[in-house]
Amino acid sequence: MSGVCHSSLVAHHSWLGTHNSLLIPKRVAYPNGMNGVSALAPSPPSPPPLARDFYTRKLAEGGAVLAPMAGFSDAPFRRLCRRFGSAWAVTEMVSAKALTVGDERGLEISAPYEGERDLVIQVFGGEPEVVAAGGRLLYERFSPAALDLNMGCPVKKVTGRSCGAKLMNDPGRAAAIIGQLARAVPVPVSAKLRLGYDRVNALEVALALQEAGAALITIHGRTAAQKYTGEADWEAVAEIAARLAIPVVGSGDVTTQEQFRRYRAWGLGVMVGRGALGRPWVFRELRGEPAPPLPEIKDLILEHARSMRAWYGTDHAVIKMRGHLARYAQAFPEPEALRKALMQVSTLGALERVLACALPGA
């Protein structure tokens, strides 16, 4: 799927039923005319025990995790997934280099909604000093629970900069990035990998990251060369997890409770990416609870759209939401006809009318 770059035991997470208002991100001031590296502050003090144990504590609560997905894992969607029980949610990936030269678009991507707990911000970059500087800026701005390094994105515009999945070809540099990032912030750091770039070498990479200070590793069960073709190899992920002392979360193709229980029984945490698109209640289903009825799904879509408009401040947010809308349509009778209609909406009012026709009387 274009545009999606996304061993511990994972018991029950309660439904989050409150509706938080959304916090529009504010502009940031860059200290000392910061241009990337020279202004990096000294290493922060050691984190308190609760901060150090964030990943193990959250995994022990039992929910699956929302994956970082470019163009999808924004604040309104994270909010819905947390309400349905995701253990935590990871932001879209943020360019560390852009942050350190004053480009604030990454702040909008990573900004939490008001009251967001357990926020994990994902960064990408290929230079240890730059990633550490960008990570420190994000920590000082938003105080996330943890920071995650993207080492799995297979998109050429990312790998062409020796970032994302391309880091799988250079375990030493990847470890240096994790080490400097871990020293720059007083919260856990983690990394999301693939099995390799064009060959399987995730164990070698994961061991290097563990030695450098990673608190958790997530592994998508495909190589970058595979992108999203074929099936994710969860057995390979489990074999790697057995060799590590830190928690491992697997990722790839999880859509059913049976899969969730199987991988949990293998000692893995479970991350859900594409399976949550148009189906944020999947985190509830993975625990054996039913999907919402269609009238509730209709209301949920409208809530999502209103949250998008509030977050982005314009009706254009409904257009931005079309990727979600196409997937929400799958829950309805005659999904293809509804999908085509939803791809034409550009305002909240138009969305309301289309859904009213799709589910009259609801």
Topology readout:
Blueprint: H1 49-52, H2 54-61, E1 65-66, H3 75-83, E2 89-95, H4 96-100, H5 105-110, E3 119-124, H6 128-142, E4 146-151, H7 156-159, H8 171-184, E5 189-196, H9 202-212, E6 216-223, H10 234-241, E7 248-251, H11 257-265, E8 269-272, H12 282-285, H13 294-312, H14 316-320, H15 322-328, H16 335-342, H17 348-358
Report the uncertain regions. Answer: 6-43
Rg over alpha carbons: 20 Å
CATH superfamily membership of the largest domain, which one? Answer: Aldolase class I
Q: What is the succession of H and E elements?
A: HHEHEHHEHEHHEHEHEHEHHHHHH
| Mean pLDDT reading | 87
Number of structurally distinct domains: 2
Strand content: 5-15%
Q: What portion of residues is helical? A: 40-55%
Strand order, sheet with most strands: 1-8-7-6-5-4-3-2
From the spread of the alpha carbons, the general shape counts as: globular
Q: How many strand segments?
A: 8
What structural category arises from helix and sheet content?
alpha/beta
Number of helices: 17
What's the architecture of the largest domain, going by CATH? Alpha-Beta Barrel
Q: Please write the CATH class name of the largest domain.
A: Alpha Beta
Largest sheet: 8 strands, parallel
* CATH topology name of the largest domain: TIM Barrel
- The span between the termini is 33 Å
